[in-house]
Amino acid sequence: MAARFGKYELVSLLAKGGMGETYLAELQALAGVTKRVVIKKMLPALAADPKLVEAFIQEARLSATLSHGNIAQVFDFGEVDGEYFIAMEHVHGRSLQQLVKRAGAAGWERLPTAVSVFVVIELLKALHHAHTRVGPDGAPLNLVHRDITPDNVLISYEGAVKLVDFGVAKAALRGRAETEPGLVKGKYRYLSPEQATGRPLDARSDLFTVGIVLHELLSGAQLFATGTLAAMSEIVHGEVPPLPPHVPEALAAIVTKALSTDREARHESALELQAALSRWLFTESPELSGEVVRELMGELFEAELAAEGIVFRRKKKATQLLTALKRPVATQLNTAVRAAPGARTFPWPLVAAAAAVAVLVGLGVFGGLYATRVKPLPVEVVALTAAAVAEPALPEPEPEPEPALSPPKPRVASRPKVIKMVAAETLGKVIEVEQPPAAKPSAPAKVAPREHWTMAATWRLDSAREYFNDGRYRQAIEQLGLCLGIDRRNAECLLLMGDSLWAMESRKSGAKRYLEFLEVAPNHDEAPRVRQLLKNSFY
Predict the structure, then answer these.
(1) pTM of the predicted model, to two decimals?
(2) Residue 207 needs a FRET pair 20 to 30 A away by CA distance; which of 366, 372, 397, 475 works?
(3) Catalytic residues
(4) Alpha-carbon distance 160 to 170, whole Å?
(5) Predicted pLDDT at 452
(6) Which CATH number fits domain 349-389+418-432+448-538: 3.40.50.300, 3.40.50.970, 1.20.1440.230, 1.25.40.10?
(7) Residues of the chain with pLDDT under 70
């Protein structure tokens, strides 16, 4: 039976802890309009302490200033019959802790590696927003969550990741010892070394606890001991067990850095850690998105959705990708291949590329009747994917041309085509690429100094990187287009343009940008990643 609480109807009790109670509630508006919210009430015993009440009010005020897609929004704060409360967004889903437990009950050893990384990336987006907030006077708020645990990370049935309980732990502990009974009970396994030793905190404290969460997701096991003193000792002394062999070395290195006991050795910000994990994820599983997380939630909690009268509808592409991610054998095989980069194997990708070219040639010679029904793979993509897995070879000398009997006749076409020779050490292929018609000559314009061009391109590139790291790929592409308009051979702009298009599943356009990047910077540090990405995607 719902109970009245001010302008809200308390529907059911969700949780009860040392600080307060959490209820599912409904806001009753005019004309029968209702909105579901979550009401967090402060316990009456704590409300008698003026310091805790003031801290609760202050933290509610700070939480209300946070507005981000990965943070549960705070709508209201008030007091009813002496009980202080916060009304916040209702996330229709489950906590990360509940998701992990349900996966274990379903017989899974752990969540798929790529899904775990995706969830943590979304969590870091929320932390970056909070860590960089400023007050009305423009001064940094220096907001630190201090309570990053799987219980405080919610995942909706639609695949959205939300961080909750911002600042509650900080408000509860203000002016008190961090080991005071009843305030941080059960959270010692997720303390940073600075918290465990009572040192001043900054945003890097949250990065350590994010590292704990990610380590546990990847390993499928608890990281630190359950006992309070034992857990704090392991945290302070950096007693972190290595990740299992199925975790790739590049990803393990990122987690190890985040779990450094010396905060100066960790990532400088949530944005930096997010960028490192994003680069790894886009290399390993570029198609992964919130749709796959939605598919995962629907598969594991289908009975709960059905009990609410909700029919979970699967999406074919997300189902296929999730099925592939759940195959432990495939994960082990990929790890084995990466662990032996020097091993020589039969060049199946090259054989496949040759077969694809042969099929295209056959279609061109014998399949004229099918030309209007079968769209051949673009020749530049075939050349790109074949060359991406080929080892660099020395260019062979070109044969001397035979003398022509008569000058060739010009060919008229709606869009002229040119033959573009790409560096042999990069691709070793001659490909045909459509080029736009040449611009009509115009009056010479005043050219800005070279250093001005460089500064403008760099500024556009920096803006694009910020958009990219925040998942706003269209805005990133707009900035990169302006960057390439200034410097069309800027390798960093071409690379990020390819990554952005790839993240938006625009494979053909992304492959063309990667091709241009490999031509401009064949020895770039990211060139091996691009070649491997193209090989994995086209074979």
Answers:
(1) 0.60
(2) 475
(3) 147
(4) 26
(5) 52
(6) 1.25.40.10
(7) 1, 18, 167-186, 328-455, 538-539
